[in-house]
What does this fold into?
Amino acid sequence: MNLGQRYFDAVVQMASARWWREVILTIGAVLGVVCLLLAVASIAFDVRPLVFRSGSMAPTINTGDLAISRTVDAADLTKGDIVSVKANDGSRVTHRIVEVNHRGGSAQLTLKGDDNQVVDAQTYVVASAERVLFHVPKAGYVVSWLTGPIGLFLLGIYAAFLFMVLFGRGRGDRTKRAQDGARRTTMTGPALVLAVAGVVGAGTLRAEPTWAAWTDSGTASGGMFATHTVTSQLTPVCTNEGGLLGILGYARLTWAHVDPRYEYFWAAVQNPDGPQLASGTVQGSGSSVTLAIQTSLLNLGLGNQNVDITVRARLKNSPGWTASSTTTTRVHTAALLVGLSVRCGSA
It folds into this structure.
C-alpha cells in the first residue's frame, strides 16, 4: 500500500470517528434538553410523569405510554378530565372523570376507563388530583428502561465516555493539540454540557407507574351470590402500659373485632408528613384486637417525636377487599430518665 493510500485511509478513519462522536454527543444533548425541561417543569409547574402499565384507557392511552400530569385543585376538576388518584390499597389509578360532585374544597369523583364497560367500584374524594396534560406513545418503555438497573449502568458508562471526550488529549505536536482542544471546546462544549445533564437527569428521573385497571361485568346462569362491604373498625382506645416510672413503657391500642373474617393492616408514620416507620397486620382474638406500639417497633432515636398509627380492616387473604376508611391514633416517643417510652397522645 502506497503512502497516498495510507493517508487517505487515515483521513477516512478520522472523519468516521469524528462523525460517530458528534452523533453520540447530539443524542446526549437532546436527552439533556428533554431531562432538563422535565426537571424544570416538575419544579416550576408541579408536573409528574406517569408510565401506564395496563390498557383500560385504550385507545386514548395504551400500555407503555408516558403521560405528563399536573396537580390541580378539586375545584378545577371537570367531567371528561383524565386524572390520576390513589386507590384505597395505595395503588395509583388513572381514569377519566364521568361524574364529579364538588363539596367545599373537595370533590367526589366517579371514574371509568375508556375501554371499561362499567365505572370504577370505588369513588374517590380528593382535595386535589393530577390531571393528565398530554401523553407520548410508547415513551414509558424508554423511561422505565433508562431508570432500571441496566439503563443506569449504561448511562454511567456513557457519562464516563463524555468526560473522556471533554478532557481527553490526542497525540501530536503541542500546537495541534491546542488547536484541536480549542475547536472541540468551541464546537462541542455546549453539547457535552447538555449531554452530561441528560445522563444525570435520566439517572434521577422517576416516572410513577399507574394502573388503568380493568373493570368489567359478567353474567352467571345459576347459583347463589351475596355481596359484602368491609366495615371499618372503631377508633382504637390508647392506654399507656409497662415500664418503671415510664422507662421502656409502650402504648397499647385496643379496638373491637369487627368480623372473624377480618384482619387489620396498620402503619406507623412519623408526623408531620414523615416517612413510614413500620407496618404489618394484626389478627383479632375473641371480641377485641390489641396492638402494642413499642420503641423497638418504631426504631426511633431519643427525643420527643409524634407518630400516627393508621389501621384499616380487610378480609383475610384478600388484601384488595378493604374498608373504605381508616382510623388514626397519635402516639409519641418520650425520653424519660435513662430510657425511651412510647406514650399516647402528642409530644
